[in-house]
Design a protein that fits this description.
By secondary structure, the protein is mostly helical. The protein contains five helices and two strands. The protein has helices at residues 5-16, 37-47, 61-64, 69-84, 97-116, and strands at 56-59, 88-91. α2 (37-47) packs parallel to α4 (69-84). The two termini are 33 Å apart.
């Protein structure tokens, strides 16, 4: 999930929707400097640069499209920006996904019960 403890703190703060106010040294962390894909896409379009040339982005449309409209809109904008920078969008399929989901659920329940057995 992360390359260092501070990255974990940032990830946790993002997931928890909280401000990050501590670091390993006890001082406040600076706000995260996140990439701006839409600005980068506009820049590369105007300069002709394609820094993502040769990169493939796989999207499982069945689940990808089954998300909140606002989330889907933001994700589509990010994918469009990556494509504008040279990435290739590749639709993917996950064979036997329902069978895998059921197997995972069964195994998770088994492990949960094992934990509480003496």
């Amino acid at each position: 999930m992360a390359g260092c403890v501070e990255d974990c703190v940032l990830l946790y703060a993002a997931v928890a929707n909280q401000d990050v106010s501590c670091s390993m040294a006890g001082e406040p962390l600076p706000p995260p400097q996140l990439p701006q894909p839409l600005e980068m896409a506009r820049y590369t379009a105007s300069t002709g640069l394609r820094p993502l040339e040769g990169i493939k982005i796989g999207v499982f449309d069945r689940w990808f499209n089954d998300s909140d409209g606002e989330v889907l809109s933001c994700c589509r904008a990010a994918i469009d920006a990556a494509v504008a920078m040279g990435a290739e969008l590749v639709p993917i399929a996950i064979p036997e996904l329902e069978l895998l989901r059921v197997a995972h659920t069964v195994r998770s329940r088994e492990r949960s019960q094992e934990k509480w057995m003496f």
